[in-house]
Amino acid sequence: NAGVTQTPKFQVLKTGQSMTLQCAQDMNHNSMYWYRQDPGMGLRLIYYSASEGTTDKGEVPNGYNVSRLNKREFSLRLESAAPSQTSVYFCASSDYDRGIDTQYFGPGTRLTVL
Amino acid sequence: KQEVTQIPAALSVPEGENLVLNCSFTDSAIYNLQWFRQDPGKGLTSLLLIQSSQREQTSGRLNASLDKSSGRSTLYIAASQPGDSATYLCAVVNNDMRFGAGTRLTVKP
User: Fold this and answer.
1) Positive or negative CA dihedral for A39, A97, B23, B15?
2) Do the chains contact at B99 and A42, CB–CB below 8 Å?
3) Which residues of A48-68 are buried (b: 16+ CB within 10 A; e: fewer)?
4) Residues near B1 by Cβ (< 8 Å), separated by ≥ 6?
5) Counting runs of H as helices and runs of E as strands, what totals does chain B give?
6) Taking CB atoms and an 8 Å cutoff, what residues of chain B touch A98?
7) Nearest-CA distance from B56 to chain A in Å?
8) Strands A109-113 and A10-13
């Protein structure tokens, strides 16, 4: 099992450009999450999907959109990237939503917005 | 709003030493508390999950305790090894999961 995979691993964007971060899990988990991690701060939840077909905002959703394409895949889209979105983005999955059980994390996408 | 704090931000110890990492939180009405390990450039790996009704959890050389009334958790690492060098994060769950900023641990040979 690959667990949680993310693509790309690294990305550099110019201000105003758009991109989609991809995430897939092969553990048949119901819930999936997108976090961002900034230096000196813990992870902050951007969006989550408790189950296929549902998505909800987390702590810092502004400037992002998500799509739960199917049970395996959960994508994060930046429509018009801003320097404040420079961060490391992590996708995670779990059986139950919002931390009730263990979450499994992908390796992260390091995004720089110039 | 739940605030999670981890002190110290960084810690350096010689190999073999026993050590304690601290996590404090402001809202004691938590569902559970989790400890994660993060290696440089990597994602998070779950270490221990303590339910709100539990006082501690153990896995190998790791022991995590939870005191909800005081809003504190500790992660005890026994007989530390260079391979334990990583950043350790705690996260508390109320309506969502809130993370601390982590403690960066270096174990020197």
Assistant:
1) negative
2) yes
3) bbbeeeebeebebbeebebeb
4) none
5) 0, 11
6) 93, 95-97
7) 16
8) parallel
- For residues B98 and B5, the answer to whether their CB atoms sit within 8 Å is no
- 8-state DSSP, A73: B
Residue in B89, B97, B101 closest to A98 by CB: B97
What is the share, in percent, of chain A residues with pLDDT greater than 90? 82
Handedness of CA B31, B92, A27, A60 (dihedral sign): positive
Of the residues B33, B44, B49, the best mutation for testing chain A's interface (the one with the most A CB atoms within 10 Å of its CB) is: B44
Q: Which residues of B touch A36 (CB under 8 A)?
A: none
Q: Each residue of A21-67: pLDDT tens digit?
A: 999 999 999 999 999 999 888 899 999 999 888 999 999 999 999 99
Type of residue at A22: Q
Q: Answer whether the bond into residue B8 is a cis peptide, omega within 30°.
A: yes
